[in-house]
Automatic annotation (TrEMBL):
The WYL domain, residue ranges: 155-219
Record organism: Agromyces bauzanensis
Domain PafC HTH: 13-135
UniProt domain WCX: residue ranges: 246-317
UniProt superkingdom: Bacteria
A Pfam family recorded for this sequence: WCX
Highest classification ranks of the organism: Bacteria, Bacillati, Actinomycetota, Actinomycetes, Micrococcales
InterPro entries referenced in this protein's UniProt entry, alphabetically: CBASS_pafABC_assoc_protein, PafC-like, PafC_HTH, WCX_dom, WYL_dom
Residue stretches in coiled coil: none
Protein name: WYL domain-containing protein
Length: 339
């Protein structure tokens, strides 16, 4: 049953409606007036008026006048006799810019990745969107397959543990490279940029901890139910400050400052040589390496000396790896004695 509004649409709203109405009719191919009215929340008469308006719309030809093929046309017999809308001729719609095959393939790959997550499996909406991207591209998109990573499999097991309220056991490698076996009550899963984190009550540490999913391995879902942790405050934010945190002074590009908001020790910033000097608060110096790597050329470590040394040593190790690869690719000159 169509929803009736108290007042008619204003001109801007009517334009937005018509821009949505035409693609809807083309996609449906054949649609009854009451069905279209229910879809857009309008009355049957408003839909009929919109159809008549569309039939007088078009794009003038090279002569500047409207010829028969320059206007939209509908099946008038079906419209007047059966109250059914069928567009039999349309103009200009096919001139709309389309995604390239590469652009469509990239978007489809992203949707496939989303479809692989447990909460999106079998999603009709995602499947429909992928089909539309495939059909609407300027050429056939490349066929891509998104491989499931070990972190994806771990994430699926963790989601299951959260939903059924059972403990998990796993090996965990922290940022310092220290490994240990943990038993935890999973509380919730959080995403931060490209990483997934588990907030859980760690029985080993006897407190709520954050675990990065890609550092968890050999996960086991136990039969033990999670305990009551109402007395433990679960932080609203992913990263919490502590007295053991390390303050690191860095110079950053002004456009990069918003990307470091989670790490800022305070709101103070001063300009130094066209950059902003700010203080970051990190759990340890090892996390600084990954932060700098994610913003190449945009972050310069100023102090403390141990932070500068750690980043410099890490960068030098990376460069050494490239030198080894380049050296291995240099062809060896063969002398006559080697033949």
């Amino acid at each position: 049953m169509a929803t009736r509004r108290a007042r008619p649409l204003k001109a801007p709203d009517k334009l937005v409606f018509l821009l949505s109405f035409v693609p809807y009719l083309l996609e449906q191919r054949v649609v009854a007036v009451p069905e279209a009215a229910a879809h857009f929340g309008m009355t049957d008469d408003e839909i009929r008026d919109a159809v008549r308006l569309i039939a007088t719309s078009g794009l003038p030809g090279s002569t500047g006048t409207y010829q028969p093929n320059d206007l939209f046309d509908i099946d008038w017999d079906a419209f007047e006799d059966d109250d059914v809308i069928v567009i039999v001729h349309h103009v200009a719609i096919d001139d709309a810019p389309r995604l390239s095959a590469r652009e469509a393939a990239a978007l489809i790959a992203g949707l496939q990745y989303l479809s692989a997550s447990p909460e999106n499996q079998g999603s009709a909406s995602l499947a429909s969107l992928m089909a539309k991207l495939t059909a609407g591209a300027s050429a056939a998109p490349s066929r891509l397959a998104v491989a499931e990573t070990e972190a994806d499999a771990s994430l699926a097991l963790i989601r299951g543990a959260v939903s059924v309220g059972r403990q998990i056991e796993f090996d965990y490698l922290n940022a310092r490279g220290e490994g240990s076996r943990r038993r935890a009550d999973p509380l919730r899963i959080i995403s931060q940029d490209a990483d997934w984190y588990l907030q859980a009550y760690c029985h080993t540490r006897e407190d709520v901890r954050n675990f990065r999913v890609d550092r968890m391995s050999d996960l086991v879902l136990t039969d033990e139910p999670v305990g009551d942790h109402s007395q433990h405050a679960v932080p609203d934010t992913l990263f919490q400050r502590s007295d053991s945190d390390l303050d690191v002074v860095v110079d950053v590009s002004p456009s990069t400052l918003s990307l470091l908001a989670d790490y800022l020790a305070d709101s103070r910033a001063r300009e130094v040589g066209g950059r902003l000097r700010v203080t970051l608060r990190l759990a340890h110096v090892h996390g600084l390496k990954r932060l700098v790597a994610g913003l190449p050329g945009l972050v310069t470590v100023v102090s403390p000396p141990e932070a500068r040394a750690a980043v410099a040593e890490w960068a030098e190790a990376g460069l050494a790896g490239y030198r080894e690869v380049e050296a291995s690719e240099i062809p060896r000159t063969t002398g006559s004695d080697d033949i």
